Each structure stands twice: as C-alpha cells, then as structure tokens.
Amino acid sequence: MQEKTMKQMQQEVDQYISQFKEGYFSPLAMLARLTEELGELAREVNHYYGEKPKKATEKEKTVEEELGDLLFVLICFANSLGIDLQAAHDRVMDKFRTRDRDRWTRKEEGS
C-alpha cells in the first residue's frame, strides 16, 4: 500500500463524506465524536497496558483500530472547518522546536 500525505488523507475522507447528503457533522457533534473515539482508545490502552483486563464478552479491538477511528474523525473535524492539517502540524512542530527546545533532556550523541 502506497504511503499517503496528510493532504491526500484529507482529500480521501472528503471524497467519502461528500457522497452523503448529510455531509460533515456540526463542530459540536464532531467534538463529541472525537471524545467518544478517544474514550474507546483509552479503554483499549487500559486493556492492553493497564490493570483492567477485557471481559470475556467484550469484542476484540486493537489500539491500532481505535487510533484509526480517532484519526478519521479528526480529519473529518478539520475538513469541516477548512483546516489544513499539514499546515497545523508544521506550526505546532515549529512551536515545539522553538518554545520548547530546552524543555526536555536530550539524549547524548551516539547513544
């Protein structure tokens, strides 16, 4: 499978959503969906890495699946608001490289 850019992922999601009359949900509904998906991710992380094992009756899901669901909804949210996620990513990385450049202890060269 060929790697996709963020722009391509945003276009792919937009093409998918555009085929439905309902289109994108409202920003508030989108935020609720993000929260729901984040909760599902938290539950899976807790099952795999935390102290709460799955019940025998619970459907098998993976952290990867839940991250994918979260990413899809995040892309929908950005698309609905006309936000370029690549540009948003670039801005936040610039912020971390400048404002937070000395915040964390760096690994030594060659380590």
TrEMBL record:
Task: Quote the Pfam families the UniProt record gives.
Answer: MazG (PF03819)
Q: What CDD domains does the record tag this protein with?
A: NTP-PPase_BsYpjD
Under InterPro entries, the record lists: MazG-like_dom, MazG-related_YpjD, YpjD/YvdC
Q: Where is the NTP pyrophosphohydrolase MazG-like domain?
A: 25-104
Q: What protein name does the entry list?
A: Nucleotide pyrophosphohydrolase
User: Which source organism?
Assistant: Geobacillus jurassicus
Give the organism's phylogenetic lineage. Answer: Bacteria, Bacillati, Bacillota, Bacilli, Bacillales
